[in-house]
Amino acid sequence: MSQTSFEIQQAAVIGAGTMGRGIVMCLANAGVSVQWVDNNPQMLEQALMAVAETYAHNVRQGRIDQAEADTRIARVSAAADYATIRNVDLVIEAVYENLELKQKIFRELDGLLKPEALLASNTSALDIDAIAAATRRPAQVLGLHFFSPAHIMKLLEIVRGAQTSPAALEAALALGKRMGKVSVVSGNCHGFIGNRMLHPYVLEARKMLLEGAYPQQVDAALQGFGFAMGPFRMYDVVGIDLEWRARELAGKGQDAPEVQIDNRLCEMGRFGQKSGNGYYHYEPGSRQAEHDPEVDALVLRVSEELGFQRRDIGPEEILERCLLALVNEGAKILQEGIAGSAHDIDLVYLNGYGFPADKGGPMAWADHQGLADIHQRLLALETRQGDQWKPARLIGELAAQGRGFADR
Ligand code: NAD
After folding, report:
1. What pLDDT score does 4 carry?
2. Is 145 one of the annotated active-site residues of the chain?
3. Which of 13, 14, 18 to mutate to test the pocket of ligand 1 (most atoms within 8 A of CB)?
4. Across residues 394-405, what is the average pLDDT?
5. Which ligand 1 atom lies nearest to the CA of residue 105?
6. Would you tell me which CATH number, out of the four given (3.30.559.10, 1.10.1040.50, 3.40.430.10, 3.30.450.40), belongs to the domain 315-407?
7. Residues of the chain with CATH 1.10.1040.50
8. Is the CB of 193 under 6 A from ligand 1?
């Protein structure tokens, strides 16, 4: 196996769904030829048409000329099976979020591809080492986590498995650069940097709905802080049903009080923007989130059924709990070495999660507040609300030394 970095000239993408489509365009735009596989031929056909349509749209907008559109389209071809893609330098897998399925695909590809080829997964959260273990080339396996829509969002999380080689990382970083991405290397943990931090942030938002807030209020507070979207508008864009289905598939987590509102929305077919209704209402063809009193009534009903005594929750509390949840998890990610620096975490949040640019990212924001102050505020939350607010060890250490995350 080669230990020197090599340039990726030919790639294959497995999966022609939402993410596969964007990833294919990222590669084609960067001059990489792409062979595309999906086990559903109809899906692949639709996806090829969607890509052609996106380029035609870019031409109409004057962003590229027809010749450039033709060149990019010519770089993309449908492949009938894995044998057809045996000579590529890189495969990016973007099939359903299911570990066994991904392992099966990696095992099969490992047996066919040249030894130096890289195998990447676009998984949002799954264990890269468990995927790599299905192959005999774990040094050549890594995560390439694109954000939706992949051809537009700047962020690329490059996930380093326990055995990923420096050469493989280097090749991925070089590719990220060619695609014009902001690449951040993350260690392997559930959700990597971005989605791992999102989890406690969203959990607080969901808890506040049960305790007395309404979706619009939570979103307004965070958007007032400068976020591009509050968490519930974000869920409407992503699709509330994705996590619902994942919980169903995994057979766990469906009973937690915090997800009961999501569950009810999904049972009603309110999956978000794509179904015209989610936490908000959308007029046909519109992406404008409109307040829906039916959702407020549902929030009230579910929290009362669960026995909550509702109380007024103001924007200060919403910001405090959501932002400190982000910062505390970010600190854990830093102390565990999952992120190389606080700046990397900030890059993830600025480029992938709509964190306000003028605040510099969650870790820079915390530094600006002062870590001694953040530490006190986390302790106060711990006293009021329990263990989940226990400050990360790193925050206490840095606060005691009068230092910030950026001084580490
Ligand atoms: P999707 O459901 O839109 O598309 C999945 C595609 O995979 C479908 O076209 C399906 O036909 C195809 N497929 C399924 N099994 C296959 C197989 N055995 N061989 C070949 N093709 C197969 O899914 P998506 O939203 O594009 O997500 C794909 C991956 O990207 C998941 O791991 C997901 O977690 C991750 N991801 C999704 C998002 C997002 O916002 N949607 C963001 C980042 C990462």
Report:
1. 46
2. yes
3. 18
4. 98
5. 18
6. 1.10.1040.50
7. 194-306, 315-407
8. no
How far, in Å, CA of 211 to CA of 209, rounded? 6
Structure tokens at 118: 């890289």
Q: Which residue has the tokens 């309110």?
A: 270
Between strands 155-160 and 141-146, the pairing is: antiparallel
Q: Using the mean position of ligand 1's atoms as its centre, give its distance from the Cα of residue 123 in Å.
A: 9
Is the CB–ligand 1 distance for residue 237 below 6 Å? no
- The first and second tokens of residue 204, run together, are 């607080």
If you ran DSSP here, which 8-state letter would residue 17 be given?
Answer: S
Lowest mean pLDDT among 22-36, 197-211, 246-260, 278-292: 246-260
pLDDT in tens, 197-209: 999 999 999 999 9
| CA–CA dist 92, 325 (Å, integer) | 32
Contact 189, 162 (CB under 8 A): no
Report the CATH fold assignment for 10-188: Rossmann fold (3.40.50)
Q: Answer whether residue 7 shows pLDDT above 90.
A: no
Inter-residue contact 75 to 31 (CB < 8 Å): yes
Confirm or reject: Cβ of 191 under 6 Å from ligand 1.
Answer: no
Rounded mean pLDDT of 249-261? 94
Query: 3-state DSSP helix/strand/coil percent for the chain, to nearest 5?
Result: 55, 10, 35
pLDDT tier at 3, thresholds 50, 70, 90: very low
Task: Provide CATH 3.40.50.720 ranges for the chain.
Answer: 10-188
Where does the pLDDT of residue 408 fall: very low under 50, low under 70, confident under 90, or very high at 90 and above? confident
- Under the banding of pLDDT at 50, 70 and 90, the label for residue 5 is low
Tokens found for residue 122: 């676009």
Angle at CA of residue 387, ends 225 and 260, nearest 5°: 65
* Domain 194-306 of CATH type 3.40.1190.20: no
- The response to whether residue 223 sits with its C-beta less than 6 Å from ligand 1 reads no
Active-site residue, from 57, 145, 281, 375: 145
- Pocket test of ligand 1: the residue of 48, 92, 95 to mutate, having most ligand atoms within 8 Å of its CB, is 95
pLDDT bin (cut points 50, 70, 90) of residue 2 is: very low
Q: Is 131 in the pocket of ligand 1 (CB under 6 A)?
A: no
Does the Cβ of 37 fall within 6 Å of ligand 1? yes
